[in-house]
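Recap from last week: sequence in, structure out.
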Amino acid sequence: MVMTQSFSLRFIAREIPQQFLDDKEIAMAAIKKNPKNVELISDRLQNDENFFLESVKANIFSYREFPEPIREKRENVLKLVHNNAPLFIFPNNFRMDTEIVQICIGKRCSDLGCVHKSILTKEFLLLLIQKTNYVSYDIFSFIPDHLITDTDIAKAVFQRNGISYCFMNNMFKTREITEQYLSLDINNNILNYLPHNLLEDRDLVIRCLKNGVVYSLPNMYKNDKEIVMLGIGLSYKDPSHNHHVNLDTFIGEKLRRDNKFMLEIREKFPDISSI
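Predicted structure tokens:
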């Protein structure tokens, strides 16, 4: 066993007596050191399916060194992907296998980059988004160009991941993504998730406000009468708040000193409970 520490040096492994290269423990230690050592172990172990599966688990790159019949057996590949083997290690015939692909992408969205392009259809992508846990907006880094602007796929991604996930991954950092989201008619406000450069676009801010309930305004708009009135109105109509609105999150000091404007709010929202 001491010699297995040098098994990454293949010429040393060749000097090991054959009976030791039929020993599972020694052979596994050799493969962990260097996947190329697969060719030096006994034929019996090279064709042992259980040993094959354990070896690939120990060193993923050893997959490519085992004999073709054992590594091309679909049942073995299914066992490997269920055990978190990444898609990139497998040949194209398995990258075109929709069941195997779905399992892999269910564990890592990045495996989309290894899928054979022939199966990346709109229908299959929608199925992946619906049934897997890790398909996020990153999907647009891997899918064909003609599907990047597909509104059905975009809508499915947003609905599957939720607004909080989109925020955590800075999905609204560009105007293109924000415009795409607004075009999908998803009733969920993204105003508080926009970066400063997009917040400076007043028209975009108003469009975001109209896209769903909002409970606060960016400080730069708390003295903008139109935007303040729109924001308060949306919050006021939210049935879960029973007409309670925290005006401190909507109105700046300048507007609070504007008695005419404050009276207008009272008249428009007579039973508002936070004025």
